[in-house]
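# nightly structure sweep
# worker-07 picked up a monomer target from the shared queue
# config: single-sequence mode, recycle default, output format = structure tokens
# input follows
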Amino acid sequence: MAPRTAAQPRHIAVATPDRRKAWLITAMIVAFMVVNYADKSVLGLAAVPIMEELGLSNSTYGLVSSSFFFLFSVSGLLVGFLSTRISSRVLLFVMTVLWAVAQLPVLVVATVPALMAGRILLGAAEGPAASMSMHALYKWFPPERRALPSALQIGGAALGTLIAAPLVTWLIDGFGWRSAYAVLAVVSACWALLWWRVGRDGPYDHQHTTTGSSGLRLPYRRILLTGTVLGSIASAFGAAWALSLSHAWLPAYLRTQLDMSAAASATAISIMSGFGLVLLLAISPFVDALKSRGVSSRWSSGAAQGIAVGVAGCAMTAFPFVDASGPRLVLITLAFGGTAIAIPLHYMTTAEVVPPAQRGAVFGVVAGIGTLPGLVAPFLTGHLIDTADTPDAGYTTAFLVSGVVMLAAGASALTAIRPERDARLLGLVTRPPS
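# output follows
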């Protein structure tokens, strides 16, 4: 019996890709994600000095952190649909210019409204970042060669935190927290200028197909209601809950509850990010090996993301009750770093049930809904800390809630994601798997 293969679309790219250009674009997009996560993490890394200087309560700081997500999901949805008409080159350029602008308000006046204005603009500009950069990357690689580039793209996120934690902490300690905002504004602007010079859309764009037009299209309702897309959204939701919590509260938790210094906290966060990066680099050959042995996408990439989110959820519920510092840090690393592999995989499983002409829009929907925890988790955590008898009790409750959400999300993904079945139901397969 021939091994099963991923669903193949009716229309395939006919242009020959420039492999060196493809990997140059990959390198640029990895750098894009590094800058993205450095920009995103600066508030959390500067949380303690900002709260002390401005006299913020935990609830107010949580609200400022959650404000990043006020327009995040809406922006991801809107830009996803715009991507069917506007090139990835233009979209990514505009996003990074806005990242640079978003860092400026607090350099003029450091107040809660200025912090929120910058975070809201940054969130609106970063909402489509992961999905649109993945969409841009997919234009340079055929479906059977996307596992490694996808892992590298998301690896840029882990690398961003790995690099940002010590460097941004060094800037904050040495030159004040405003210096970190200024440096990140310059870095974002530099990436935008370089991308405008070298960035291009690849030959696997939906406009380069044998149909000579925009390719096969299906009603969005049919695509979005497949178990694969719904399960991928669940996976994204669980991963995003842990991610938003780590950006907003993990640095403060390590410093105020575990009595770590700023440098030690930054080192711990870098180690956690390094763990996530190792997982991301390991998942590509793992998925490819499973598929080469005839394992379906349901199990090779669908089950893997559901299990990853579920295991991280178990660690999230466990570490508040562990007193030994070594095992506790191991569980914290698993809780916040273990979801990393779910992010590229939920894009891969979604892509298998979406016509290329509609991929950017559906990626935007998955990202928009999947990242909604960012709007809830940071503020909820701050509120729980302020209303609990002690900050430690508040953190414990917040982590328990997070773990339950992640376990439910992982179970949903494990149950619902079935790319081969859904691709056949949508008519995207030229022949049934043998």
